[in-house]
Design brief:
InterPro entries: Ala_racemase/Decarboxylase_C, DAP_deCOOHase_LysA, De-COase2_CS, De-COase2_N, Orn/DAP/Arg_de-COase, PLP-binding_barrel. By secondary structure, this protein is an alpha/beta fold. The chain is built from 12 helices and 20 strands.
């Protein structure tokens, strides 16, 4: 586990984590620790979306995901408007819904004019159930099942083909159904970024995509498959990236693939550069703004197309974390504490690795605050421990916090991406509820699971059913 920054004399209280005043509306959400609407109430509580977080946990319970509508919509608009500003050709922003796929989130991004990237039948049907247009849904994944590919052909979404098995299976399905299937090819660009090794997907040693030395064989195959309409190519170089140079390099690599396709009679009209822009989880993080990232990508593709004398393609990108990560906080109640003199103080919360597996999986670091005492001085260093039967169930090691009391509402910032979507029922703990906050109103978007929900899928055969005890 990576420690957070130690206590500093310059740190006063939790208000330091609030976004600065922004009358011009120019703050980039991914550069803020908390949602753009975060502020304090007269009662010294944290407020998000005009809603008192303490009131929300009284109403909906804990743990509780609190999603700010304004922050999510602002990020969507900054991406979309950035492409309008910097790219003279057609463009489409596609939400990488693996970050958080549910009906409400898919409906919001669809309402904001974005497409949706899905990686399973469940995500696909959630997107269509939220009203997304099928021709704006891009189906990813390195091992799509036959049933998932069949569903993709039936609904008419775009399929981002990852390997030879998928390519040949789609060809057979398209012929059988008498349909033309629109596809993109995922190709590994061989570009590495300085990020966690589990979320680097652009380097050659990756489970994703065709290798560059396969691309000509793939194009040759597609030239004989008129039922497969190859629209373009896709590449993704990783997640939680703060660097801009890899995105500059990516345009040149992808433009070369377009030129190669022409030799096989294929005209590629779409370039999908993936996503990967990082967010600010702690004060030490300094990601580029959404606008800067979009400008870099656009300039890269424009320059690469000019160098190869090819028309500007439809430019696609697939942000996930940078759209929704900073739009959500998770609220917990503090329970027991354990003080080990001279070593550490543990404070247990009523959630943990089942609602946020990123610290134990990626050694991810977060920032915490006490939502019911925003002006309380940060007086101690505490390790926030989850409730699960796992020594590694630590949300934050050495967090700077006020002196904690049982019942305090501890809130973790930046939990919109890969928290609910990776949540589990470890130790048979039900998954939390989620609410959408906007203009002082809170709306339930995901119900809290119950123990009955957990037992619903269980089957107890008669042969092992406990027998009644004789008296």
């Amino acid at each position: 586990m990576v420690s957070t920054s130690p206590l500093s004399a310059s740190i006063a209280d939790s208000r330091q984590y609030l976004p600065p005043a922004n009358p011009e509306g120019t703050l980039s959400p991914n550069q803020q620790l908390l949602p753009l609407t975060a502020t304090t109430t007269p009662d010294d509580h944290l407020s998000v979306g005009g809603c008192d977080v303490v009131d929300l946990v009284e109403r909906f319970g804990t743990p509780l995901y609190i999603l700010d509508d304004h922050t999510l919509r602002t990020a969507c608009r900054q991406y979309r408007q950035g492409f309008e500003r910097y790219y003279p050709g057609e463009a489409l922003v596609i939400y990488a819904s693996k970050a958080w796929n549910c009906l409400a989130v898919c409906a919001i991004v669809t309402d904001e004019g974005l497409g949706i990237d899905v990686v399973s039948a469940g995500e696909l049907l959630t997107a269509t159930g939220a009203g997304a247009d099928c021709d704006r849904i891009y189906f990813h994944g390195n091992n799509k099942s036959f049933e998932e590919l069949t569903l993709a052909v039936e609904v008419g979404c775009r399929v981002v083909v990852d390997n030879w098995l998928e390519l040949k299976t789609l060809g057979e399905l398209a012929t059988r159904e008498g349909k033309t299937v629109p596809i993109l090819l995922r190709v590994t660009p061989g570009i590495e970024c300085h990020t966690h090794e589990y979320i680097r997907t652009g380097h050659l040693d990756s489970k994703f995509g065709f290798d560059p030395d396969q691309i000509e064989s793939v194009f040759e195959f597609l030239a004989s498959q008129p039922q497969l309409q190859c629209l373009g190519v896709h590449a993704h170089i990783g997640s939680q990236i703060f660097e801009l140079n890899p995105h500059t390099d990516l345009g040149a690599v992808m433009a070369q693939w377009v030129v190669t396709a022409q030799r096989y009679g294929l005209t590629l009209t779409e370039l999908d550069v993936g996503g990967g822009l990082g967010i600010r989880y702690t004060e030490g993080d300094d990601p580029p703004s959404i606008d800067t990232w979009v400008k870099t990508v656009c300039e890269s593709v424009i320059a690469a197309c000019a160098a190869h004398d090819i028309p500007l393609p439809k430019l696609l990108c697939e942000p996930g974390r940078s759209l929704i990560g900073s739009a959500c906080v998770t609220a917990y109640r503090v329970g027991s504490q354990k003080v080990i003199p001279g070593l550490r103080t543990y404070a247990a919360i009523d959630g943990g690795m089942s609602d946020n597996p990123r610290p134990i999986t990626y050694q991810s670091v977060y920032r915490a605050l006490v939502a019911n005492r925003m002006t309380a001085p940060l007086a101690e260093t505490v390790t926030l421990a989850g409730k699960h039967c796992e020594s590694g169930d630590i949300l934050i090691k050495d967090a700077a916090l006020p002196e904690l009391k049982s019942g305090d509402v501890v809130t973790i910032a930046g939990t919109g991406a890969y928290n609910y979507s990776m949540a589990s029922n470890y130790n048979r703990v039900p998954r939390p509820a989620a609410v959408l906050v906007a203009d002082g109103d809170a709306t339930l978007i995901i119900r809290r699971e119950t123990v009955a929900d957990l037992l619903r899928q269980d089957c107890l055969p008669e042969t092992i059913r406990p027998k009644a005890k004789s008296t």
